[in-house]
Amino acid sequence: MKDHFVLQNVKMINGSSVDIIVENRKIVDIVTAGTGNGQNLVDYNHKVYVSSGWIDMHVHAFAEFEPYGDDVDEIGYKTGVTTIIDAGSTGADNLSKLVNSCKNSKTNVFAFLNISRIGLERIDELSNLNWLDEEQLIKTVAEHKDFIVGLKARISKSVVGSNGVKPLKIARKFSKETDLPLMVHIGSGPPNINDVLDLLENKDIITHYLNGKSNNLFDESGRPLPKLLDAINRGVHLDVGHGNASFSFKTAMHAKEYGIKFDTISTDIYRKNRLNGPVYNMANVLTKFLYLGYSLEEIINAVTVNAAKWLKKPELGRISIGDLANLTLFTVEDEQTSLIDSEGDEKTAEQKIVVKGVVINGEHIEC
Fold first, then answer.
1. Are 306 and 44 in contact (CB under 8 A)?
2. Residue 23 — φ and ψ, nearest 5°?
3. Boundaries of CATH 2.30.40.10 in the chain?
4. What one-character DSSP code corresponds to residue 113?
5. What is the per-residue pLDDT across 28-39, written as a single tens digit (0 to 9) for each?
6. What's the pTM?
């Protein structure tokens, strides 16, 4: 790694160009384009955007688990994402293994702790309430308080079995005991989505909010459910969590029509949907929202400013002198590209977002 380098003639999201000078892993200056001095100049010729490093709020990064697992850097910096949040791959039984598996990775990693101690060792992890061990969960949170950002509860039929909404009620108790918010996966019912919404509070996250399943957040005509509007007013956070089965263009169009906007855009990426789609990478998911008509600023804020704010780590969402350098470099190219949602619905976009590189904890890497 070079101790000093200059990213020259990079475009900010507002279209202005600057030079960003990095030394000893930190941003030491941001100057007028073309005026940065140093031995190691990387000239992007006003063609490449720079943002603070992208943050993916929902990934599965515990490589040992199938199908929901992958290698940290394969879904991290190599795809332009400098910080990933593992979304409950591991519970108290295996969280320490996840922590250890990340130690040699370049990508920054945090995690939601699965409320089931077995995590995604099996995919019906909330079907047996004996796996919801409060004492073990609290102990794990205390041991890894700098790594764990919240608790994860997957509340859909295939996960909870006959338990309905009971695991979410237990999760609510765990949340109060640990003072950690919940990320709640929604999907097929039972339980009914309205019963899930009733239990969500300020700072909790609904992930998969644009899924196309019959138990989703919009009625048959596409209008948002009244209890969804109530939840938003309480401060519940909406996260995309694309995944194999949880993003629908049709639902996303309804949401946009009625002003139900994402707070964060995340991939729910793991090995299968990285290699075979429909996710592939963060840039592909962001391109879908460009196609839907959101501005570049709204889209990039969702994976920078908004995510960093939720994490209470504002430094991850800004480009500021004195901060550790975590940046994403990308272009918006005028090129037709095919986009597929989780329902198999295919759209053709006229533009696409392409990652060109990252600065990860002060190290510049071209992608």
1. no
2. -145, 135
3. 4-51+320-331+351-366
4. E
5. 999 999 999 988
6. 0.98
